[in-house]
# Entry
Amino acid sequence: MNPSTLHARLVVDELVRCGVTDAVLCPGSRNAPLAFALQAADATGALRLHVRIDERTAGFLALGLAVASGRPVPVCTTSGTAVANLHPAVLEASHAGVPLLVLTADRPPELVGTGASQTIVQTDIFGGAVRLALTGAGSPGQLRSLVDRAVAAATGALGSWPGPVHVNLPFSEPLVPDGDDVVPEGRADGAPWTAVPAVVREAPPLPLDPSAPTLVIAGDGSPPLDVPVPVVAEPSSAAWPGSVRTGPWLLGADRLTPAQVVVAGRPTLHRAVQRLLADPDVAVYALADVQGGPWTDVPGTVRAVGSLPALTPDPAWLRRWRQADDAAAQALDKALDDPAAVEGLRLARALVAALPDGAQLVLGSSNPVRDVALAAAPRTGVTVRSNRGVAGIDGTVSTAVGAALAHPGPTYALLGDLTLLHDTTGLVIGPDEPRPDLTIVVLNDGGGGIFGLLEQGAPEHSAAFERVFGTPHRVDLAALCAAVGVGHHLTDVAGLPAALAPARGIRLVEVRGDRSRLRDGHAELRSAVTAAVHRSS
# Structure
């Protein structure tokens, strides 16, 4: 057996022993040894292989698989620019703490810098975005040990926060199998070559006042929380099901301002949250991440990091928040019942309410995740995910496909039209590849709606806005779906529940909207909610 084939088979065998169940592969010549090894493992049922033609799509597919399964997922590419195309997914995995294994085939070291085709310097190409960067070479035992080290680093077993790991694998020709020699055996019990224990972390209780008016702000990555104080949570937080329905609308109200705030996870959606955390009159604390992740402290106000002690809030504090939330929710729902209200908010409210128990919901960045935060009623029975590590729109379709492939129930995604178009190759799935049950709901308002709500959307910038921020397009989504073999259904918010009826495979549900009144519509909603809260006080 030639060295490249042997090394690839050893790597794949050890990955399986480390608990890897899914792998993503892009075609190439230099990574042929890994392609053959992964295909063989798939044929025996040792793992499930997913092949994609686009490396950026492949990276986010692996990311989605890892997020939903909780297991490390390798993505394998050939050399050259193929490696660079993984960088967006690596950055998202790094900032979100996702165990992504990047296996890049490389030319032998003696060819780097010689002008050899498809050859770049791949060592350390991802810089500080990866938890560990390794080069695969050596004896069978050294290669198995290297794989174990990579998996341990990706999953946080080496003491760092989970995240991406880069394993660069130089392969010399021949690159195809040339014999049936037996791969040197690993451990007889099927375990990894090197057993690495999980890291157990504990943190002291936060030195806060348990009886003071306290608010918990829970962002992406927050654990579930069962606390006797108001929780304002983002949808992708595990604390969202028990959070205050209209929390984002209520921040800033004088009688609801807390004496202290506990930050859990990484809140990034609402400017009102950042203003609260920067308030010098509010004591800010951060909940320690059990996986060792960094705490969030944009304004530099966190006084301590630790675990949450038992809280004994004043009943009057809880009563004020409950009354305000009831009033705000009634005003919000009354406004959103009007068909002329903001389409994205109406769609988000209807979608979350219509999902079956056991469903998974993947939210696109920009408006979709914010629309759910502002309009939907938090609920149990639905797992919500969103790429909030770097919060880009890159690869969201592929992330949803990967998450759907790893989820036991139906998966739905809520995306904007630009997010869909940014990753249309995520819908290009070969006839021999596993296909998920995934319904992609797209609000098609002909461009980038989020910018209309930001400073550049102000009336004084209208002359330049539409072309350089609104970025209008004329893509026919039905024709696009036909081209990639995906079902298409056009509906409105009222018809959404019927359009979500159980179905097999991937389908796209298009809801058309109008961006022209987005800014005014949000302002009108805020005025209605604020007036209702004021009357309730």
Notes: The chain has a mean pLDDT of 95. The chain is about 35% helix and 15% strand. Residues 343-516 form a domain with the Rossmann fold fold (CATH 3.40.50.970). The two ends are 78 Å apart (CA to CA).
